[in-house]
Design goal:
heterotrimer, A mainly alpha (about 300), B alpha/beta (about 260), C mainly alpha (about 325), A: about 300 residues, mainly alpha, two-stranded antiparallel ribbon, 2 strands, B: Rossmann fold, six-stranded mixed β-sheet, 9 helices, Branched-chain amino acid ABC transporter permease (chain C)
Chain lengths: ~300, ~260, ~325
Amino acid sequence: MYLVVEQLLNGLQFGLLLFLLAAGLTLVFGIMDFVNLAHGSLYMMGAYFAATFAAWTGSFVLGSVMALGATLLLGIALEYVALRHLYGRDHLDQVLATFGLILFFNDAVRLIWGPAGLALPLPAWLTVPVQIIPGIYYPAYRLAIIAVALAVAALLYIVVMRTRVGMLIRAGASNREMIGALGINIKLLFTLVFGLGAALAGLAGLMQAPILTVQIGMGENILILAFVIIVIGGIGSIRGAFLAAIFVGMIDTLGRAFLPDLLRKVLSGAAASTAAPALSSMLIYLLMAIVLVVRPEGLFPAAKR
Amino acid sequence: MADPLLRVDNLVRRFGGITATDNLSMEVVPGELHAIIGPNGAGKTTLISQLTGQVMPNSGTIQFGGRDVTRLPSYKRSRLGLARSFQITSLLKDFSAIDNVALAAQAHDGHSFRFWGNARKEKHLRDAARAALERVGLGARAGVVVSQLSHGEQRELELAVALATRPQLLLLDEPMAGLGVTESARMVALLKDLRKEVTIVLVEHDMEAVFALADRITVLVYGRVIACDAPDAIRKHDEVKRAYLGEQHAVTRHG
Amino acid sequence: MMPKRNTSNAVAALLCAALVLLPVYSAVSGNIFILTLFTRIVIFALAAASLNLIMGYGGMMSFGHAAYLGIGGYAVGILATEGVGSGFIQWPVALAVSALFALVIGALSLRTRGVYFIMITLAFAQMAYYVASALSRYGGDDGLTIYKRSDFAGLINLSDRTQFYYFCLACLFGGLYLIWRIVNSRFGLVVQGVRSNEQRMQAIGFHANRYRLVCFVIAGAICGLAGALLANNTDFVSPAVMYWTRSGDLMVMVILGGMGSLFGPVLGAIVYLLLEELLSQFTEYTGLILGPVLLLIVVFARGGIMGLLGRMSRG
């Protein structure tokens, strides 16, 4: 019982982190029609910034806030210097250029912080277990991640659905020409959206940092998961990204936790222990394959352009 | 009257709130040139696209040569002898004119899972392509890349590609769109010649051409057939005058 | 039309001659390193050429091509571990398994287009990577050492450096010849037609996806061959060969050399891997230079090296 609740919460927490990453990716794609492979690098930078600033200031919270600002600025700078030259280009060009950026960021991090990786220690008040239902405890920090990510998701929803900027964003996603015709400064809007996406990625990275080590390439695997989420959720759709992210987070976490035991009931011990790790790492890709067969446009596609 | 070559029954296609094809029924008999006219937005291209399978109808049936083809994908309809030209020129832009036509011939000459021989040296394909090009007056331009051809030549090439599939029914979506006076006259002469060999459905805005060529004319307004008759009868049809010629008048004034 | 291609053809011919004569230079100068380096380059050129078949000619932007390098390599490695040392068994299996994987992945991915296709091929290749990492019997994360190279019953000795180089070169030339035949065949014209205008090809009677899929499978099999060569070259195969950055490297080689030109990927592989080698002599942080160079190439130099040569001979 305890294990199930814990894994469910872990799945939710992982899913929400994935959402933060996928939301930025899908916003940038939906509005600028731009594929950014280096999104995972921004996630990594968020984590490195947080570890560094937290060490400087001695405060986890202050360090995190500074890291968030730093990733935002980095995103804006990146857009301004390099990426805006790639709008309207072939997706393949964008993929290659941002692939180049990944190579750059990985080696830049290695040069600045060294190859070893960093730790981001938590303050004491975040390490205590909290009793969520009688008899069941869950780490305070993971609960905090869930709370922050849910708050950000709600905020994002309000911004996109209820504000003027959000209206522009939605208009941009469904009709790029119209926005230009309204006389809105499209360049500024794009820069802002890209910065927002970068900050979301940075937030995901810095929140994940205390749980895993801060290391080079940490953004790459999770970026591919974000792609899977976008494929499942439907490209350009925030709602789709949210639902698919929770779904993928759950399946991945629960699969890794319980699949070995389940398999052991069906297969012999040796076969199960060989197949389980392979199968549980395949699980979400199999899920993606099923979605592709049933609904190639994704489960919750954005309104037609 | 002979059995129809093409028979459409109660075809419906909606796009969101708009009904582009509204319970439409029509027949095309072998050997005729059947024109479809109607004001802009009457659903002519949507109809053609459903006939050739680029767009699937919401309901209704399409029969071709007595066979129900409503749900067949476009490549299968092409094999049955249904060919189309596109209103907005749709060719292989980075291929030469003759390659475009030869591929159409190739599509109807057995399967193309042949990996070794040089397809550009298959004489019968090249000959067929050259014949189709000669037919539309592009014989001298065979080696030119499509993107280097003039707009008029591209329209003619559209026709050659359709012809090379040796169709029983040719669906032409505004073959004269954007053509100059001489080019249009050439196209009309060409169609006059072609109609002797193949059944044609012609969607066209150029009324002079339509009335000169058609055996029968179907008039579409808002996705519905309001009249289907011989050209002379259509000319005198009251509803057509109101719905269609009124619009035509407005268009002339704007233009 | 032909004279315009003179420069490109001359470069291709020179390239072939240089590749054939390389072992002679290596023997005369005593520079063994260059032979080792170029064996690697030739293998990657074959992989890049296979990617070019789907990307350049077929318009399918696969970001998961390195998966076949790994699958071909693991086929050889696993068979060797299980005591099957004959190349006559190992290599056909490597090709068949790669083709099969391509068939499944292709059938799924080709339901989509554009960016989706890029992301999905990437994701499936990453799945292959994780599965290989989970194969604890065959080394898992650490990879699998191959103690004996494929045995071809004495016809050829793959452990001999020069023989192995020529074997790889023969595979490359064979692969290029095959691709050249395919590109000009009926099948190849259809695939290129679909790249150019899918709707038109459907309208004249081609089932576009069926041709795409077969093309995808052929490319997968050729890359599987490159994987089998690579495993023999390093006497080792690990999940790292199919990590997604490897797929990115292959894409870069194709673009750098020039998509849709027969020798482009060979040139791309040579330039990219030599550049990487050269940079690594000066700094261990090659990405700091390679990354921005890549960005600049994308922004400023379209059509790759072959495109550049084409423009030179025209202008």
